[in-house]
Amino acid sequence: MQSASDLEASTLPGALRRAAELWPDRIAWIFDLREGPEPEASATLTFSDVARGVDRLARHLRSRGVRAGDRVALLLHNRPEVPLLWLALARLGATAVPLNTKLRHDDAGWILAKSHSVAVITTPELGDQVAPLTIPVIDVADLASPPVDEDPLPDVHDPDDIVNVQFTSGTTGHPKGCLLSHHYWLHLATSLVTGFPRLQPEDRLLTAQAMSYMDPQWNIAASLVSGASVVVLDGFHPATLWDRLREHEATYFYCVASMPSMLLTTDPSPRDHDHRVRVIQCSAIPPARHADLEQRWGAPWFEVFGMTETGGDIHVTDVEHDALVGSGSIGVAKPGREVRIVDTNDVDVPANTVGELVMRGPGMMSGYDDEAQATAHIFRGGWLHTGDLARGDESGIITLVGRLKEVVRRAGENIAAREVEDTLLAHPDVRMAAVVAEPDELRGEEVKAYLVLTDSRDAEAAAAVLGDFCGDRIARFKVPRFWEVRDDLPRTPSERVAKSLLVPGRTWDALAGSWRP
Known about the structure:
The chain is 27% helix and 26% strand. By secondary structure, the chain is α/β, with parallel strands linked by helices. It has a domain at 406-516: GMP Synthetase, Chain A, domain 3.
């Protein structure tokens, strides 16, 4: 296992230079895009290919006027140019602003204006989404030719230079731009090498999320630090994911939110245990499905907690794994990360008492872009306040309970939405669940459940079964009164339910025994 002192690079360009020197002919990235909108962009690159590609794109960008300190937006489907451009901008001392390809001109325009981007790199197809905006548009195809600019590129960068303005998912309002530095990315990547899961050059990581999201980016950073290869898919396809894991001989996979439940809806196969995966890390493993996931594919699943603002913070390792399967616990703080659970006055609460999770330590964001008040608020008292409700036991093992802003206050009782969601997801007929507060004149708020089911029953029929199911497992006052069944739920790029986008529809009121339009 490599030590932190062996991983000497302090910037992403430095990490790339080191990787190209140590493993020039080793495969760095495989882009398997056969199921996506741009299958022709599939490619395999060695570390030396990556280094040459980054230098080529950096010269192209410089010839187009991109300078240190500039922000350049990337509006692209998954393809090799995305991480190449990310690293090329860092090579110039410029900053990438990744954009979700599902954005349209209003929400994309808001981010472009908020971030003060000087240009957007895209394709003609996606460029239509920003065409009404007054910002220079660069066609990524125009960057494929050899650059005219052959002057030396800058070699000296500050680890605190900003590499990304990485916008949060915006589940509760306008997204905020997190300022992420070289130090942020390399601290996160190095922690995956020096600590669990102890990535090695022989490992092969697979990522199935949009590269506008942070997870594929830290996979790329981890490959530069460890020498491991990364397989990038065009997106998450539950029916074929394990085929790709087998085909590419992946040893590591990270997933999040609804992905585990969606994988379990696929048909079992005699080849389910035929793979090389040694570690699956996941944020928000459904506790009731944890054992099923491990039995189905014969690979261990490890809970991990992190935020765009903080990187990686708390995890279950191979030491704690067996005792925590199905517990819902997120494990222990990673080395170097201090964690506390506090009350509303930021005073530590006793063990096994619910409070807000706060953290501090190296490798966090430098702040929110152009939002000094929000930055000061989240870092108040020198600790980053996560907004997550949690409890910790005497040994330091932490369990999330819910979000401060996702609590239903019903007749004086506080009900964590996550607790009700976890209970609903324990039923085999529930594919997805989102619990929200519904205003109520008598009780202040009532519990409402949005569901995606495995069958075609309506909300009335679902409530009859799931109401009793929940009532046997949680307090009756926590059981949803209002029920709505959907074909799907709106999701963020990280596959979390975007509750702010849930517009009420035809709802079953279990208390009144009637439908609400």
